[in-house]
Specification:
By secondary structure, the protein is an all-alpha fold. It has 2 domains: 258 residues, Orthogonal Bundle (MetI-like fold); 44 residues, no CATH class. The protein is 72% helix and 2% strand. It is built from 13 helices and 2 strands. Strands 1-2 form a two-stranded antiparallel sheet. Strand 1 and strand 2 form a beta hairpin. The relative contact order is 0.13.
Length: 342
């Protein structure tokens, strides 16, 4: 009786843990969807043009130095700050919103946070897509070819694993920046920013595929030993058809899991590099350079902690949500799941 009771309680406890994990995955998906919608759907407002005197600028870039470092809506304005706002309105000057206050240049922090989130998510998703694509192709070739081809390809992966990836990204970003400086005034600021962001996502994605390549190689080698793959080879199915019709559908699980876990790593790398001033640069915002600016406002005289807390909280919520979603995908696509429950 005790053996029967114990055998019946173990699957139940595991079923409860899977239910909890599923709930966490749903919460992560909801929070991540909210962040995506908030950052992307508000771009017409946050990146829309506003009048600043005789010129028009994007809202996230528009500034009024007379209204710098205003507190957010939950803060209290003193008489001097109220006078500054009224004076700016009377003069027809640009008055930034106060939902999250203004930064040291008098720019709307909320607009910059939303645009910065869109840019950080774009870089993270693009870099993860590059890593997944390169890792899948590279690992599939190594696992399917086998022999010397596999040995050479994986030794290249081992060498790249031994190199400091962040240092390589920094060196590549500095080298591209040096080339852009040689161009001088020939490049428009928008083109310079586009090249910097493209270099950043290519550098992060181009060095994040190594783990993916190893995982896919192992999966391909295991699948090639299965009876259905031996049947494909016996009846003369072409290698391309073997991969597209038989191997790739069985690789969707590992690819989905790694993609969900690669996105937070790419976002964290971009935020770290932007925090150091190497990634996305002013005046274009990202969560990383906003955190770097907010760090300077922490002092013992008058601490404006919200300038640091807002981007850091956005990064934390995004990374936790993506990790919850990745755990859910890993649980759903785990090939040993049914064997453990049985």
């Amino acid at each position: 009786m005790s053996a029967i009771a114990s055998s019946s309680t173990v699957p139940a406890s595991r079923a409860v843990s899977r239910t909890r994990l599923g709930r966490a995955g749903r919460i992560g998906a909801i929070v991540l969807g909210f962040i995506l919608v908030a950052c992307v759907a508000t771009l017409p407002w946050s990146a829309g043009a506003v009048a600043t005197g005789a010129t028009e600028m994007p809202r996230y870039e528009a500034s009024n130095l007379a209204l710098n470092l205003l507190p957010p809506v939950w803060g209290t304005l003193d008489a001097a700050e109220v006078a500054r706002i009224e004076e700016a309105r009377a003069a027809g000057q640009y008055v930034p919103g106060r939902v999250l206050g203004t930064d040291k240049l008098g720019r709307d922090v909320l607009a910059r946070l939303l645009v910065g989130g869109a840019i950080s998510l774009l870089v993270g998703l693009s870099a993860a897509a590059i890593a997944v694509f390169v890792g899948t192709v590279y690992g599939s070739i190594a696992g399917a070819a086998g022999g010397r081809v596999d040995a050479v390809l994986m030794r290249v992966v081992d060498i790249l694993f031994g190199l400091p990836s962040i240092l390589l990204v920094v060196l590549l970003a500095v080298a591209v920046d040096g080339l852009l400086e040689q161009q001088g005034a020939d490049l428009a600021p928008a083109a310079r920013q586009t090249i910097n962001i493209a270099t950043l996502l290519i550098a992060i994605g181009g060095l994040s595929w190594l783990t993916m390549a190893r995982v896919i190689r192992g999966q391909v080698m295991a699948l090639r030993a299965k009876p259905f793959m031996e049947s494909c080879r016996a009846i003369g199915v072409s290698p391309a058809r073997q991969f597209l019709r038989h191997l790739l559908p069985n690789l969707i699980g590992p690819i989905a899991v790694y993609a969900a876990l690669a996105v937070p790593a790419a976002i964290l790398s971009e935020s770290f590099l932007s925090f150091l001033g190497i990634g996305v640069r002013e005046p274009v915002p990202s969560w990383g350079n906003m955190a770097a600016d907010g760090l300077g406002e922490l002092n013992t005289v008058e601490s404006r902690w919200w300038l640091l807390a807002a981007p850091c909280l956005a990064i934390a919520m995004t990374l936790v949500s993506l990790n919850f979603l990745g755990d859910e995908l890993r649980e759903r696509f785990d090939p040993m799941r049914g064997r453990r429950v049985a």
